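Suppose you are handed a protein chain with no further information: no name, no annotation, nothing but its sequence. What can you learn? This example shows the usual starting point.
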Amino acid sequence: MHLLTPVRGPILASLALWAASGAWAQSGYTMATLSPPSGGQVAAGDAYDLTRSFGIDAQGNVVGPARYPNGWYFDSNPPYLRKRYDYHVVRWPASSGSAAVSPTKLHKAATWSFMKLDVSSSTNKVLVYSKTQAVLDVPTLKLGAALPTMVNQQDAKLVNDAGTVLWLARSTNDGGLIGASGLSQTLPSPDASGIRPRWVNNLGTVAGDVQLAGESMSRAAIWSQGQITVVDPRSDRGSRGLMINDAGMLLAESLSITCFGSNCGPLPDSQGLLANGVYQAIVPTGASAGATVQVQNMNNLGQVVGYASTDGSTNGRGFLWKDGQYRDLTTWLPSQGVTLPVGSRIRFVMAINDAGAMVAELVSFTNVATLVRLTPKP
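A reasonable first move is to predict its three-dimensional structure. Written in C-alpha cells, the prediction is:
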C-alpha cells in the first residue's frame, strides 16, 4: 500500500522549537587542527556533494579520508614526477584542548586509485567507494561484501548506523535500500514519473523527492515502513527532500520556476528545515540577490551546518544554524573564544554531532586548507 498524503504547514519567520535544548549551554569553543598524515594529505569536504566524507561521533572522534604517500610515478603529460598515494579511512581521536591531533589508520581502501567515503552519524559504519563499494564496520575493522553489481553500476549514496545502504539509479529514476544482510528493497513510487531518494536516517526512514505525473516540479517525499508521504514545505512551490534526522525533522529545498531568456525551469530558491509542519528557510546574514546555501549535515536537534555565499560568489563561508538563527562561523567564533589566523575563514562545515562539535575546513588568506574540529566547552 502506498500512502500519498500532502502535508502542508505555515511559513513562519522565526522558530524556537529547539531553544530550550541544553545542548548549547556551553561557554565557548576550542579549535583543534586535524593534522594530515606525515607526507600525506587530507581531502576536505566538497561543498556540492551531500555525501558525508567526514563524521564525528558523540565523544568527538572524527572519521574520514586521508592519503598516505607510496612512492613516485612519472606523468608524461606534461612530463613530471609525481607522488603516488594510497587512500585510507582514518580516525582522529577526541581531545578537549586546542593541540593538533594526528590520525590513526583504520582501513586501506585503495592503492593508487580514487576513493570516496560516506560516514554514518555515529562513525561506526563507512560506505567505501573505490573499485567496488562496500561497508566498513569501524568497531571490528571488517569490510563487508561488495555491494551488488546492479548498485555498483548505479549510485550507492549513504549508509546509516545499522549498515543499511541507500542507493539511487539515476538512469531509471528509482532507488532503494540494501540491508546489512544484503537484501535489496526498491522504494515504492506513487503515480509518478520518477523518484530520487537522497538520505536515510538511522531508523531506515528515507528523504527525497518524487516527480508527480502532470506536474512541472518535484515534491519532497518521505519513505517509512513501506509507505511514501509527499510533503509540501511550501505549498505554492516545488521542493526536494535533502536530509532527515532521527527525530523526523526534514531538511528540504524549495523550488521555483526561473527563466534565463526563453529557457525556464525549476531552480532552488531556499533550503530550510521542516519540523512539526513548520518550514523555516535558512537565510545567510546580509544575504543579497544571488545568495546561495548548501546544507551539509544536521544533528538530531535540528542544528544545521554547511556552506553559504551571501552574494553567489565563490568566497562563501561555513555556517551553523541553530535555534532558528544563522551564524557565520568566521565572524561568530571569535566571540566564542576561538582565535582564527589573520585573513583566514571557515570555508565549509562538513559534520556536526548532537553535542554541537563540528568538523570544518579552515582556509588561510593564501588559500591553504586545514581540517579542524570545533568543540563546545562544557
